[in-house]
Design goal:
6-stranded parallel sheet; Rossmann fold; homodimer; alpha/beta; 7-stranded mixed sheet; 14 helices; 419 residues; 3 domains; DNA-binding
Chain lengths: 419, 419
DNA sequence: TTGGGGAGCCAATACGTTTCTGCATGATTG
DNA sequence: CAATCATGCAGAAACGTATTGGCTCCCCAA
């Protein structure tokens, strides 16, 4: 009955729409169907189509399903640009990768970034967002050409201009790694580097190391700085003279050279921790050149996410920063911030007058969060949220006590998880 | 003089604009500055602002610089969403990664994807586009929520529904890897896998191999299929009985097991080619377990982009697919397609009527293209462009002829480029 | 009979650009 | 001196959607 009447209007309404659009509706030969076309075809108004497809408004199920079927038949897909313009939400999150050298920002020089990006993409997708990869260089050309709901910055430099610009535009920014300087991010996620390094040095000392060396980078990023400081602090505490080499992290060859230098020193260490992913193989190769047996003459640990250290000769103990969990956590944090901020600005008009209305939005309620730094009081100005994630030491043969003699056919060592 | 007069109108124009916007212009307290605000502040129309900032229209330099300075002062950034809606170009390119298992699509299981994505991002950026990572699953939720100018699909499955949907929407799609089935992509880029495998097997045979084995995947992707076929063809040609093991590529442990199986066979090969990145270390470990010396008892080559094989013991010869060049080429191809298509549709209205007017748009004029499969005749329907890229065999100790006896302190072998 | 109210739907507006068209004004030419 | 032209700019119409505030029925109670 209602259906009948409503759909009897079809021709009129459709005709009106067609007229209002002028006679160039014949150019719709190969153009994508818009919401207007669906409305005309279904014999309803644009409003009704929008409501039917988005589950809003007061519509009987018959109308809803009818509109949906027409939309399906026409292959209608809402224009993302128009929706973004109207709603202010793009569903896009920027992922900023730091540019080590110049042009080709090293994004996967080490497996860390790749795994982190993978997990971040997956986590964003699960909440309906997509990820866009962007360079940290100040090419604001690209930055301002894509509508971002928020941004993740990996290891931001002190006083990062890109971050400042984003914040000025009101775009939420969270960082992977503690922000240096006074970078005004909304929050960050990082490992407990101090605890990781101390734990790992204790492990080496427990395996018999008397002088532990460090192979580190000359960079100023937070990871390098915190790890080096933790190493120096540990040395001071146990009364060991620090012995370390540094090299510019972005040059792959420099790592091998530095590893060689470290083992060539007169005060050669009997255990080494390498801060970067390729250091393990570099150190292994250097040890072979000097005739040092691992772990008999040299204990080895390196920070890596790569699986190759499970089957090197010998397998190398690695410290995993768990980039997957970091990437996931940083995305959760960012999306929470985005949605809280949206809810806050939606409730703002009422907030100035009386009660805050039915603000029943889920606001970071029961996440799988471990220990937050701060719980925010409500939608509004959140203090900086900081979240510290644990690391994992994967102990393999290269850092085991020097006991058993090695046979030719040694057992396969399964990757034992520790700590 | 002109300046003086023009800017004397400021107050009038500004007032008019303010009125036209109603009295709610006070809500502009914390809102981002729009083009209207710039126009009002500079005392010109929004048309002039747009023209001045985009380098269009007929404006004296004085006006241009004045508008620019005002825009800078207000911190004006054009809304990407509005611009996209108006122009139809978003500056965003989708990069589809194939989901091996279920949820967590393995994006960097192997260094190939990571390097390819890095190069693609870099190439896109250089031409003013950004990259968005998207899953190949048919979650069209996310797909239709982001405005894409085009999409790169990595190794599309036969009859991929996502690709079909994108093409139906008129979005250009190019693929990395030959598309299976009748996937209607606009073009593709791939290695010459046949030539790569044949060249590599010849190299092994030249180093003295009598029976070459293959460690392959059970997947149906084009890479695996073409490589396996090339191997079988080569075996048939030289009259060798094929000997190979396959395993599901997405399971990392399965690789080690399959490597073990291959060397445990009664018809054990004296040389092995591993199709996937981790196969090198897996085979090395398996060889150690069976007391086989490399390269004396077993020659080894694997397909990998990882640098670790330069410093394994011994260093392993690798086949590089040059993912960086692939990623760059595939992006160039896609952007060429996007911009050609845009130019074509811009010239279309005149084409049906009379002369084409002043259609002096640049239409894929002189690109840096190497050897295309086809040169397109003009803007319009391009045939499928297919581009084949060379591979690189990096010869290291693991596949060298068995001549010299190994000393304890062997020379560092520089990564020699071949072919 | 009549007024209230709810169910079902629609017109109009705003989002912030870009671009087409066109109106003045002064300079240049026949 | 009249006609033309180039210059500098402004008005207004899109682009395709979401949303606000109705408007029209019809039903039921008073």
């Amino acid at each position: 009955m209602l259906r009948g009447r409503a759909y009897d209007q079809v021709d009129m309404t459709a005709a009106k729409h067609q007229v209002s659009r002028g006679e160039d509706s014949r150019r719709s030969r190969a153009a994508r169907a818009g919401i207007r076309d669906v409305a005309a075809e279904a014999g309803v108004s644009i409003t009704t189509v929008s409501d039917a497809l988005n589950g809003k408004g007061r519509l009987p199920d018959t109308t809803r399903s009818h509109v949906r079927s027409v939309a399906d038949r026409l292959g209608y897909r809402p224009s993302a640009a128009a929706r973004t313009l109207r709603t202010g939400k793009s569903g896009l999150i920027g992922l900023t990768v730091t540019t080590y050298g110049e042009e080709p920002f090293t994004f996967t020089e080490f497996a860390y970034f790749a795994e982190m990006a993978r997990a971040a993409t997956s986590a964003a997708l699960a909440r309906g967002y997509a990820l866009a990869i962007l360079p940290a260089t100040s090419q604001h050309d690209v930055w301002s050409n894509v509508a971002l709901d928020g941004t993740v910055v990996i290891d931001p430099a002190d006083h990062d201009p890109v971050v400042a610009e984003l914040v000025r535009q009101g775009i939420p920014v969270v960082s992977d790694g503690r922000p240096g300087g006074d970078v005004p991010v909304a929050g960050w996620v990082d490992n407990d580097h101090e605890a990781a390094v101390v734990g790992l040095l204790d492990h080496l000392a427990g395996s018999g190391a008397r002088r532990i060396g460090l192979l580190a980078g000359a960079g100023t990023d937070t990871y390098t700085r915190l790890s080096t400081e933790a190493y120096l602090g540990w040395c001071a505490r146990v009364g060991q003279q620090p012995v370390y080499e540094t090299y510019p992290a972005h040059d792959p060859c420099a790592g091998a050279v530095a590893a060689d230098r470290l083992l060539a020193r007169p005060d050669r260490p009997d255990a080494v921790y390498g801060l970067y992913d390729p250091n393990g193989t570099d150190l292994l190769a250097a040890a072979r050149r000097y005739g040092l047996r691992v772990p008999e003459d040299l204990l080895l640990v390196c920070c890596s996410e790569s699986g190759v250290y499970a089957s090197t000769e010998p397998p190398v103990t690695t410290l995993s920063l768990q980039p997957g969990r970091i990437g996931s956590a940083v995305i959760q944090l960012l999306i929470d911030t985005i949605e809280d901020r949206a809810a806050a600005s939606a409730a703002r008009p009422a907030a100035v007058g009386g009660r805050s209305g039915g603000g029943s939005r889920r606001a970071g309620a029961g996440h799988l969060a471990g220990h937050h730094g701060t719980a925010h009081p409500g939608p509004g100005v959140r203090p900086m949220v900081q979240r510290v994630m644990p690391t994992e030491l994967i102990v393999r043969a290269s850092s085991q006590p020097r006991v058993r003699a090695t046979t030719v056919n040694q057992q396969r060592t399964p990757p034992a998880a520790d700590r």
